[in-house]
Amino acid sequence: MKYSKEEILEGCRKMCKNTLMETLDIEFIDVTEDTVVAKMPVTPRVHQPDGVLHGGASVALAESVGSAGAFIFLNEENVAIRGIEIAANHVKSVKEGYVYATAKILHKGRTIQLWQIKITNEDEKLVSLIKLTTLTLRT
Question: Which residue range or ranges hold the Thioesterase domain (predicted)?
Fold first, then answer.
């Protein structure tokens, strides 16, 4: 990483302005050499009708953190990242609190990246396991 952790997290905060990530209150909280972590509050805004976290909100969180990771780890200017495939397994319900998404890169190609994103609850129990494929477009 050519920037400090604090600079990267500040950049992530800025990119969330006026986006779905801001609407869902997604906050980037950590970055390491091979992971990016974000959290999202579980409130009625992200519930399905029966009062538990909507799977679509989990997928939006996962794609947000994985795509941010692809941009961060490529260390290139003038690129756009697009999610081209996402698959999610939801294994546990959450009614309140926070969920945490940890994106880990599995394949870091110049054009295609493969990510595994684990979403956990506040007790670190698995909520969803997601696979994301991203495409890098040179602009």
Answer: 51-127
> Is 122 known to be catalytic?
no
**Secondary structure tally for the chain: helices H, strands E:** 3, 6
Whole-model pTM: value is: 0.94
Dist. CA 101–CA 116, nearest whole Å: 10
- Strands, E assignment, the chain: 27-31, 35-42, 79-90, 97-108, 112-120, 126-138
- Please identify which of the residues 10, 22, 27, 63 carries the catalytic annotation: 63
Does domain 5-138 fall into CATH 3.10.129.10? yes
Cα 97 to its chain centre, rounded Å, is 17
What span, in angstroms and rounded, lies between the C-alpha atoms of 9 and 5?
Answer: 6
For 5-49, what is each residue's pLDDT tens digit?
999 999 999 989 999 999 999 999 999 988 999 999 999 999 999
**Does residue 100 contact residue 37 with C-beta atoms inside 8 Å?**
yes
Who contacts 68 (Cβ-Cβ below 8 Å, separation ≥6)?
A: 12, 15, 28, 36, 38, 103
